Each structure stands twice: as structure tokens, then as C-alpha cells.
Amino acid sequence: MHFELTDEQRSLRDEVRQIVAAELAPNARGWDREAELPSELYGKLGAARLMGLRLPAEHGGRGLDLRDASIVVEELARQDGATALMLSVQNLCGALVLQAGSDAQQQYLPKLASGEHTAAWVSADTLKATQNNEQWILEGNAPYTINAGNAHLFVTLAQPTGDEPTQALLIEAVSKGLHIGPSDDKLGMRACNTAPLTFEALSVSADSVCGEAGDISAVLDQHRILLAALAVGLARGSLEVALEQAEQPDASGQPPAEHQSVQFMLADMATTIDAARLLVRRAAWLADTGQPYAVDAATAKLFASETATKAALDAIQICGGAGYSKDLPIERYLRDAKFIELEAGSSQQQRLNIAQSVLSA
Amino acid sequence: MDFTLTEDQQVLREAVRTFADEVVAPQAAQRDESCAFPTELRQQLAEMGLFGSYVPEDFGGSGLDILSYAIIVEELSRACAATGVVVSAHTSLCVDPILTYGSDEQKATYLPKLASGEWLGCLSLTEPGSGSDAGSASCTAIRYDDGWHVNGRKCFVTNGGEADVMVLIAVTDPPAKRHRLSAFIVETATPGISIGKLEKKLGINCSSTAEFVFEDGVIPFENELGEIGRGLNIALATLDGGRIGIAAQALGIARACLDASVSYAKTREQFNRPIAEFEAIQHKLAEIYVGTAAARRLIERAAWLKQNERPYSAEAAMAKLYASEMASRAANHAVQVFGGYGYCKDYPVERYLRDAKITEIYEGTSEIHRLVIGRELRRHPERVTAT
Questions:
Q1: What is the pLDDT of residues A289-303, one digit of tens each?
Q2: For the whole model, what pTM was predicted?
Q3: In chain B, what residues touch A279 (CB-CB under 8 Å)?
Q4: ipTM surpassing 0.90, yes or no?
Q5: In angstroms, rounded to a whole number, what is the distance separating the alpha carbons of residues B116 and B110?
Q6: Chain B partners of A293 at a C-beta cutoff of 8 Å?
Q7: What span, in angstroms and rounded, lies between the C-alpha atoms of A29 and B266?
């Protein structure tokens, strides 16, 4: 058992912190207001090899394991949840193509790693795929698809008719029958584009199949771990900002941190954030060492996301009026955190999955 | 970052779990009723080596690491929380300070018998007028030519009813503002020391909670533990370690709640199906499970820090704070899952609820832990907000 970061992990973390300080921290508020990430950000993150965290160096990525990737995502989210979310989904798509893609399909990877192309993960119960000769015909809607607005590649989960399991199809943006609707106007994660998709008799060749149920669930479990790390980053942001604010003397001349009621909230935030981070690390370690990790991924995602929302609420409470104002980033952390309780399976779904696992153990 | 349990730790967990299921669990309800800790059980715990877990082998212990000790307390507590605290208080609150602060002679005199379980240990710190405010103790130990004369009362001493040895924290310099307290190793058989009240409690009933009355008990000089005047530091540092034990106790209780709830939910049928099929029940099972997972991570980290001689006070406080409140939530869920039967003594979950509550109180209340953590956050924000 060992709880320290290695020197390499510390270097990685520090490197990402510098990038985040330079590129994200000064701009996140503006991007949230405009509900858009600037196009040059993708290339910058690509040049820093963060768009392909899990992709091997030969494709232009960093080849990080999940433990290291979770460090990166936490640091990104500390300053901008929207960038961290966009990048996480980019990496989710890349991970599936890496794991299950044919040689031809792996040709997509270098441009995903460089940030030249973005990828969207498309998943909805209503998406159906019917096989017709060597073609798959897709029909249905997928609302709130992350990265849809400017994606070049859509990793699309479709339900074949009958009892066959879900499979993933790689669909390029300019495809007849694929309509991308207007971008969603959201509470949080505003700068991370989401848009509704409509598939009307979209036809793709059987070559587009990339990954089966096992591959899909594996990369989704990994994605949950990184979403949990994202939530930890947001929560940490709330705690750090609240702690700093609480040490400033208020109108009475005393720092709010002198009050037990404030100390108690800070203590609870720190405790749950540490627990959340440890759950993320363990889930990542299990995945990295080839052990079963689905329940741990669900546990981490559930716990970290609810921790992040609560931490932001309490941080606003500690900071009072300033916390309620956009002058402090906490209100954005709150809005961003809420999304993680919904994405990749709601908290309710995570509880049901965990319970099924506990009941069948 | 590595979460591997060694093979020894896994084997230990299996062994203690089996022992707990076969030896500790069967009479747990009866002990809760009788409020007595049987000598036979104490001997069986001793034979398993559970009283000397991290005492070095040189002193007759098992030479295990801190996490192994936490595993022991957790597995025992899953079967019987009171049994868990008997071992935890003995180890963390009596053995540990002797191991940490004792002279070679003191260690040689006391550790082998404590490690073997021949002697049971306790910590006499709390007084009727001094609980969270440990520094306000008033039981005095005044230096005479023949030793330290002790007068006063200590209360809420876990293991006090059976203990052979105590670590005593007493006031050696009453008018001083600092360095008022000192620590001593005291044999309970010393003339002038008697057991007063034995508390009747809500839970952990077969763990004795005793009052000690000191009427001119004389402690020999060679029983001073650590430097005179350092008693409060010794007490607080000792409690840091105790927190890991209590966190483990709470985790054990929560696991018992989960196991009982899962088992009941699978068999109890209402509306023509096992209640395990209802989301409302699944929700509770998941909540208990997630709570145990989070608590376990915090305990593992605190144990690792203590084992590696890093500062661990805030992390131990986090583990104990979280695990204790989690255990109470888990027990509430468990009683709810059992419904009416959960409220009846025929089923164990009501005992889990009663046992869980004390973990939020002793060895530092939740409020004190929040202050400890808050203070650490303010002093070292960088340490506690980023691994």
C-alpha cells in the first residue's frame, strides 16, 4: 500500500498546473459566459498532448494510465470543468477506437490526439441500427451530445434490433442523414458544447463498427473514473477558494474562519474531497492493474459528483455574497458539478448498479 | 498510488473473520444483554494474538503493521463492536503510548504481558469535569519522597472494569498554565486505586466503562511515562492513533449492517417479491456500501501515514469523523430495511445502531475532529487539499 505520488506524477501534475494557470484560469469565466471554448484551445491542448491522454506516443498521445490521467483531469477541472469535460469525452472516444478499432479506424487517432479533430460520444436509448446487406442504417435521436457541435467523429452507440447487444459505430460528421441541432443553452458546463443529434436513415458500412458491448462498458467505466476525478477538481476548487476567502477579515474585522460553523463546513469538505480522491485513485489502480473495477468506478463517480455539488454549495455559503457573485468561480463550480451527477449514468443509476453488484456478490 | 494488500494482510483478515464468525459473533447479543465480558472470550482473543498486533516480536507481540491492526479491529467489530473496542482501547490507548514513550525497562516490564493479553490495558484521561477539554483535568499526582501521590477521579475508562494496567494522565503542576499534565503507567492493583461506577450504556455493553477513584495511590518514579509535564501531548498523540482503531470499529459495524441488510432483503418478501427488488431498498444498500468504501480509503491512508511515521493527526481525524457518522447512517438504514423486525432485539441491527453512536463520541467527538481538521486546513492548506 502506498499513498504518495511518484516524482513523475508530481512533474506531470505541475506541468498541467502551469498550462492550466496560463490558458484556463484567466479565461474560464469568459468561456462560460460565451458558452464556447475557443477553437485555438483544442490545438493548444493537443500540442501539450492532453487531447490524447491515453493514446500511445506513436499516435501523438501521452499513453498515460488511469492513475496519471486522473491527476491531469483533476488539475484541468480545478480551473475549468468545461475544458475538462470536453477533453474527457475526447479521450473516451479515443480510448474506444484504440481498444477496439481496426487498423483503418486507428487512422483517426493522430488527429484526435493533436486536437485537429474532436470526437463526440453518442448514446441514446432511442438510437436503433438495422442491418441491411453490408450496411447499417441508423435511426433516432440523441439529445445533449457532448462535443457534438464541432465534432468530426461521432462514436455512436446503437441498439441493433432484436436481442443483440449494443455496438459502436464510427460516423464522420459530414454524413447524409446526420443532423446536428442548435447547441444547448445549459446551467453549467456551458463552454463545453452539447447539441441534439438526429439520425434519419443514416447509412454506414459494416466497416464502421468499432467495439462491442464489452469494449464499450470498459471505456465507459474508465470514463466514470475520469469524471470522478473531474468532480474532485471542482470540489477542490470550491474548498481552496472558500478557505482563502474565509481567512479574509469580514465587516466585523474577524476572518469567518475563526467561527466553528465555518471550520466545520471546511472540515467536512476536506474530508469528503480526500475520500473522493482516494476512491478515484483506487478505481484507477484497479483498472491499471487489470482487476475488476466497474463497481469502484461507479462508487467513485457517485461519491465524487455528489461531494462536488455539496462542496460548492457550502463554499458559497462560507463566502456569502461574494460566493453568490460571478466574481468568485464557486458559482460556476456548482453549476458545472451538477452535470457530473447526471452524465455517464445518473447518481440514481449508479446506486442501482452498485446495489446489483452487492446483491449478487 | 498502490492499494495492494499484502498476502499476510489478506490471510490475517480471513483468519480474524473466521474467528469472529465462529467465536465472537454467536454470543454477541447475549453479552450485550448481560453487559459482561467473559474471561473465556478474553483468553480466546489472547490465544489468537489479537492483543499484541503491532507490538514488536521482541516484546512478545506479532510485529504487524498498523493497517493489520485496523483489519483486526474491523473484523472483530463486525461481529461484536464491544469486543472490537476492548482490543482497540487496549492497543491504541495503553500499549501504544508505552511503546512510543516508554523506557526500555518499562517496555520490558509491561509490553510482553499486555501483548499476550495476560494483562488488559486502558487509558485514564477523562474526568467528570474534563472531556473534550482534556487539558482541564483535575486528578492530581503530587511528588513526594516515596513516589507520586494520586488523588481524584477518572471516568468513562474503556476496559476499566477488567484492566490490570492503565496509562494515567494526571495533573502534576496544578497552578501551571502549560505542562500541567503528566503521563504514568499505573497498575490497577495499586493500593488506593479502586473501581467506582461501572456505566450502564446505550451500546457496546459488554465493554466495561469504568470510573476509577484515586485516594492517595502511590506511583513509583520509575513509572513516569515520558517527560513530566508532557502528559497532554502524550494523551493527544495517543488519541490520534486511537482514532484509527475507532474508525475501523465503525467500519466493522457498517459492514455488519450491510451484510445483514443484504441477507434480509433477499429473503423478506412483500408484494410478492423479495424487497431487494425495490429501488428504495437498493438505494439504501448502495448508500451503506459506498460509505464503507470511502471510510476504508481514509482508514488505509491514515494507517499508512502512521506506519511511515508521517504526520497523520488530521487524516486520522478525517477517518474517524467520516467512518463514525457513516456507521450511524448505515445502522439507521439497516434498521429501516428490517422494518418492524429491525426494532426488535431478536435481530442484530438495533444493536448495531446503539453500538454505532458511541463511535461519534469517544476518542474525540465529531465536533473536536472537525476542529482538528479545520485547524490543520488553516495552517497547512496545501497538505490537505491535494494528494
A1: 999 999 999 999 999
A2: 0.97
A3: 293-294, 297
A4: yes
A5: 10
A6: none
A7: 50
